[in-house]
Give the backbone structure.
Amino acid sequence: MTPDVVIIGAGIIGAACARSLVRAGLRVTVLDRNAAASGTSASGEGNLLVSDKGPGEELRLAQYASSLWPDTVAELRRELGADFPSLEYERKGGLVVATTPAGRDPLLAFAESQRGAGVDARVLTVKQALRLEPDLNPAITAAIHYPEDAQVQPVAATEALLASARLGGADVRVGVTVTGGIRAADGALVGVRTSAGDFSAGAVLNAAGPWSGEVSRSLDASLPVRPRRGVVLVTTRMPHRIFHKVYDADYVGAVGSGEAELQTSSVVESTAAGTVLIGSSREQVGFDNRLRVSVLEELAVKALRLFPFLAGASVMRSYGGFRPYMPDHLPVIGPDHRVPGLWHATGHEGAGIGLSLATAELIAAQLTGGVPAVDPASFLLTRPSLAALVPEVA
Amino acid sequence: MASRMFPSRDDRIQPAEAPPVALTIDGQRVSGLRGQTIAGVLLASGRLSWRTTSAGATPRGVFCGIGVCFDCIVTVNGDRDVRACQRRADDGDVILTQYDDLPGHDDQPQHDELTRRDELPGAAS
Amino acid sequence: MTGVLVIGAGPAGLAAARAALRAGASVTLLDSSDQLGGQYWRHLPDSRAGVREDRLHHGWDRFRALQDELLEHPGCEVVPSAQVWAIERLDEGLVVHVHVGPPDGNRRPSRELTPDAIVIATGAYDRTLPFPGWDLPGVFSAGAAQALAKGERVAVGGRVVVAGAGPFLLPVAASLAQTGARVLGVYEASRPRALARGWLPRPWRLLGATSKFGELASYALSHVRHRIPYRVGHAVIAAHGTDRVEQVTVARLDARWAPIPGTERRIDADAVCVSHGFTPRIELAIAAGCDIRPDRFVRVDDRQHTSVPGVFAAGEITGIGGVDAALAEGAIAGHGAAGGGADDPAVRRDLARRATFTDFAARIEAAHGIRPGWTGWLRPDTLVCRCEEVPYGRLRETGRATCSTSLRSLKLSTRAGLGICQGRVCGRTVEDLLGRESPGGLLDGTSTDRRPIASPVRIGELAAAHGRHTSAATDAARHQHQ
């Protein structure tokens, strides 16, 4: 039976889209050249953040996503049963601090602008911040509490969304590499050629994360997605002393930056396993995944600025991954205006876990002619910020 | 009978007499010989386990004995996660056993209560 | 002069260092221990040095000669208590990152080495398959019993059972007996037919491998002297006790190593030492970029050269071969690392000796290799990952529930292999068990052997090095401007 949609990529974006499309009544096939949940979705902290986004469409998408997570987690648990690994969803809240006098005013102004956009951003005194995080460096110069920030175990979430899609009839094929597109006489994309044969489909959804530029090229439509490397340090288990996602306000600057060279900004949090995650770096080095000790050292320095007690903690592992980076820092969610039948859900950079559910709903609404909960115009390839970067297909 | 040190006087390899070292583990004094590892001192004293696991709260001691498994870790003079089978005992070492409970949801500061009370004017609600 | 870095001071590393020195190189020899000799020649510390240490060791004189030559050689820097925690692959070459100081210390000085050539000789450690109760205190790897006996003169128990597979069980039992423990029995999982297959087809090889043959024969003799029963086709399939081992269950196994129902027998014991083979320590070789063979040993050519220019490997990480093979491989590797030719007279004898042992690993595998039926002794609540306390049942349920074919995903959703030992103990077992649940095998092409951070490092130590690098870089820049 010909599927309505072939999704390329079984990371969290592909998995969430598969589930939403299946629930919308479509027949879905998911392809991944590797295993599911083995790329970017298995390389991050599982951030569901509103705190790092300034007013605008991406924040609206994040707020929408934030509203979807609690019910989705409960639904998945009902559908999949207690044997399924826990999604470890926790609305633990974020605490964003400035660590320099110069960083204070920009952080307060940023929070003020977010409050204008409906974000619960609470200005704390240092004393109040220390009551939320008693081991925080008291030398901080400003602190904002974001109770809406949450966390999920990204691999469990991806596998759960995929398992749910499978229960709804989705066909998930792993170890299948897409090699090209199948075009109809009118130029429309009507399927993909793969290492496991041809797959016809009404639509092809590119959800290949940092590899979606490559996938898109194989379908004869360029897409300016590039890998942006990130590294996270994992400590050994320790007594629970960090209770929120705590990060340095320069994280916001690093996320929004387009600089290619190394940038690190401290994000520190505990996991349900008792370890502490220390992120995160941003570098554009292609798909080079070699360990760089200087990156680890810089992350360590910045983590100590937030939590001096971590000096004695041991790092037992580091992991690196590649974020799908778009030059204008917005994801691409919707049809490719140049190639009928080709759709994209990619380019979320470091926010893909959090935005996955909202992305999937937007795709499903657009594919089935429904009304999207967030205006999709800002996420289309036709947006002005991409004008110079998305050439028309000849 | 349990783990113990082979008496030197019976030992065919004739070990040299080593000066004693004394350490404390959770405040309890244990003595050994210079050059022994912390695990060696503890095992020689007949103690088979010292760490408590996080999930099952079960006892652990030495397993691999060569620094690979990390089962025997202890806190030594304030430094956590020291492999007792690798670290030589120093006279006066203060050893604490480790039991790292998994984070629960009841041990956190109470956000809601705190934020309600401490909310500043001008903050969104 | 060529600068050669040798990582690991067991038999292979010691031989490599000596050969490199003799070929005219300068050598830095690192070992995480504060003494030389590795696990094979593990001995009492200087403070308790044994007058007759030779009575506990094979080839003790050989070790002393090696050690003396290295310590006295002006071109050799021996750095004990040196923990290599990372090998960085920069475009300009490899950087070996080392902390020097007490194991798991704090504020240890760091060193970054950029040698002309590296010999990796990191050895191997016991592979112990899980069984019910293996997490009880009093259950040890066989290597633990050996290390404590040789390095501390501590016997892990009074009444001890030794079990598992492989020729290594014999010296362990002998060491235990020589440390005053009563060894109740050695239980070898392999059955006579497999043992015969592995050891008998080429008896002339054993004659060529005189020293290995002599070593095994002397252990056999020691067993007779200490009256230690040796039973083949048997395994310890459970340990019992509340907070320590009090009893073990021994059962007969079929040819696939599945326990035969009705053959179980309980034995009172206060310790059990178990090893089912060896896992090579290949994380540093992987970090250096070395190609790994499908059987998970480091790929080397005739000169012990790996796939990475200037990086050599020797000893158990290139195949389990025992001490004689390690010494020969080490010498060939060290000679090559110093720039010596493959057929120089200096290594001719080592090449011949190495050839004698080429099929030793294959024979051990044929005779003692792990057979798939062992999972027959697992129960759903048997821990597979000791660190994160992940039971066998959860591993299987998660595999089935997610249909995942990704090792990475399954590790993250079960936490197996994510604890402080970083899968060193359970990794290969987890891969085996999860692979059985996914018919096409695991797809993501990763392995539990990959550990870019090869040993825990304190955040304060990382941060301190950052400051130092920065000031070093600034100094360099200042010099350039002057």
User: Anything to note?
Assistant: The first helix of chain B runs from residue 38 to 44. The radius of gyration of chain B is 21 Å. Chain B touches chain A at residues 54, 78-81, 100-104, 107-109, 111, 114-115, 118-120, 122-125 (CB under 8 Å). Residues 66 and 85 of chain B are 7 Å apart (CA to CA).
